[in-house]
Amino acid sequence: MNDVVRKVRNLTTDEKLHLVIGDKLGTTADGSAVVGTTEKYVPGAAGNTFAIPRLGITSVVMADGPAGVRIDSTRKGTNRTFYCTHFPIATLLASTWNSALVHDVGHAIGDEAKEYGIDVLLAPAINIQRNPLCGRNFEYYSEDPLLAGKLGAAYINGVQEMDVGTSLKHFAVNNQETNRQNVDVRISQRALREIYLKGFEIAVKESRPWTIMSSYNRINGVYASESHDLLTTLLRREWDFDGMVMTDWYGGSDAVAQLKAGNDLLMPGRKSQYDQLQKAIAHGDLSRKALDINVGRILRLMSRTHRFQGDQYTNQVDLKAHAAIARQSAVEGMVLLKNEEKTLPMQGIQRLALFGCTSYRWIAGGIGSGNVNSAYTVSLVEGMKNAGIAVDTVLQKRYDSYIQDYYDHAAPPQGPYARFLSVALPKEMYIDKREIARLARQQDMAVITLGRLSGEFIDRSIRDFQLDSAERRLIEDVCETFHAQRKKVVVLLNIGGVIETASWKAKPDAILCTWQGGQEGGNSVVDLLTGKTTPSGKLAVTFPNNYEDELSAANFPDDAPQITFNRDKAEQISSERKNIDYVNYDEDIYVGYRYFDSFGKAVSFPFGYGLSYTTFESRGASVMQKGDVVTVSVMIQNTGLYAGKETLQLYVAAPKGQLNKPKKELKAFAKTSLLQPGQSERVTLSFDIHDLSSFDEAASAWRTEAGIYRLFIGNSSNDILSSLSLRVRSYQKKVSDILAANGQLNNLK
Ligand code: GLC
């Protein structure tokens, strides 16, 4: 009998009830923007399970988040610090299209978690970026489930190499912050399986996460954390997941239904849950057998942790080495969107005029549980100075005092959720054209940074997606004035989610989407601007021309960002509010490029797009199939002047058949190593033939229709380099008919 089973047998019922509920919820001293923290083991961690010393049961300590370990950087009783490295946001990591790089970032974060005594890192978050206004898109990877799943798996494997667990989240269909704890997502089984669950399926099968975090929302009428369909029939029986499931903090409503559904651990833990479970056991509403299953999974998780193994953690982390990883990984995920007449890399540029408040207050990442308490953030102006590039100090002084004055007088966020919010970014400072003319005469180039700050708890508004008048005027005036002096203008996008670009992108000479690159962001940007490294990022999300072009725009809370924590789910509402109490995923599978590409809708910058300083050529594409594995092979050569990396993307178009399908879908991708000018590399892109199947709801089966499939090899979804054909036989695999849109309940009886 193994040790876990023995422990379960020796536990009292009361001890078992404590084990399935988180230990407690602390709040940080200043109530900083976190949902749940505990002071008990590692101050600032998000939560932990109960310990039962008499049986050698240790606590499992959990901390956020995807961009780095989030714990308090200072502690009572000591003046030493406990900083963590702020790595780039997930959206940037996805834009690297580099699984090995994402793995290495995960490894470094896992190392920090281990040394700070964290047993499970509450990451990665791989929800689909369904709509640009979701506040947490910065924490998510992509509009495409293959890219999200593959890179999520790489991240998990990296973290878990350190014997630190992960919590793949938020399972599932958590694509808005508005009323996230209650909103009912109404969605077809096909969209669920092909788009919103597919990334989780890939990550579960390719990385074996120790835990999964169920999401807050309901899916077709049932809370994800209470859905036996989702957490047992699909996750465990169909995908063979062998780990533990925890709720999101305060997620769901019915503790008994959660345990029965296969949600083993209720975080961060409330007394009312203990009372409810105690009654359920006493009345036989929850069987002891079911409870033992939940407890066994929690103990199996515990037995894997360093804390249980008695490993001492040092509280010493190699911040210097990890800062270097943060800097390099950020460089690979920044996307060059425009580069007229080789504006970049900067040649012979010694002096710059830096415009935009964000140039001086760089944004490392997003708000909420995904933030990181790091020692510093390198701004653009610091990055320039580190590279020996002078910036106009008169302008810098004006910005510094304008920004300081703004924050000195900015009203802190108001209301019951103030601690979750952040002071809005300052409006762009007005600079009159005479001053700009002076700068255009004296400086070699202008750089304008546009910043956006978003995060957990609140979705963005359409205004936040647009540029405001101050930003438009700044771009207008600077471009007009610098161009009059035959000087160039570069725009940087220090953002966490897509913004409007179509109406102004013709004005500047170059545009670099820097995303939010973590604490080394300013240095990473300058590494690209100076040509120390060639950009190799590709968009993992579409930049539409207008917000209204998004197919999901009609079914997203576009201007009613609401923070609603109705703790008591029983709170009845008179009439259901569209996009707040329920949301219809009417766009179905047509998310992102699957929509724009299939319906011929023009976009500003397409999925998979990204420029380089060098050029590449591909030749000799071929395809072979061995068993179920299809492998496309192609030679890629650097035909330009700079060393660089290229990402090849393999899209597949199915022949016309019974099921309507997107025009083409991403089925594989690969990034070259760093190719020197003239150097070639053979790239292989592989996928399983059954990945071509679509979900047929009528048959409740994955189905591939026979015929000739077209394989497109591209360096962007709209730049196809070569195409091949593949004859495919029909295939069908029946699966459980679950999560249907009629809201049936499938709780364990
Ligand atoms: C939050 C987030 C989740 C996080 C957890 C602990 O509400 O939704 O991503 O891991 O609580 O902070």
Descriptive notes:
The protein is α/β, with parallel strands linked by helices and 749 residues long. The strands form eight sheets. The chain has a six-stranded mixed beta sheet with strand order 1-2-5-6-8-11. It has a six-stranded mixed beta sheet with strand order 12-17-16-15-13-14, sandwiched between helices. Helix 1 crosses helix 11 and helix 2 (13-19) crosses helix 11 (288-303). The longest helix is centred in the N-terminal third of the chain and has 17 residues, at 99-115. It is globular, with a radius of gyration of 26 Å. The site of alpha-D-glucopyranose has 10 residues, from loops.
Our measurement of the CA-to-CA distance between the termini, rounded to an integer number of angstroms, reads: 28 Å
What's the gyration radius in Å?
26 Å
- Global structural class: alpha/beta
Q: How many helical stretches? A: 21
- Largest sheet entry: 6 strands, mixed
Record the strand order, biggest sheet.
Answer: 1-2-5-6-8-11
Number of strands: 30
Mean pLDDT: 94
Bound molecules: alpha-D-glucopyranose
What proportion of the residues form beta strands (DSSP E)?
15-25%
Shape field: globular
Task: State the helicity in percent bands.
Answer: 25-40%
Oligomeric composition of the shown chains: single chain
In short:
The chain is α/β, with parallel strands linked by helices and 749 residues long. It has 21 helices and 30 strands. The two termini are 28 Å apart.
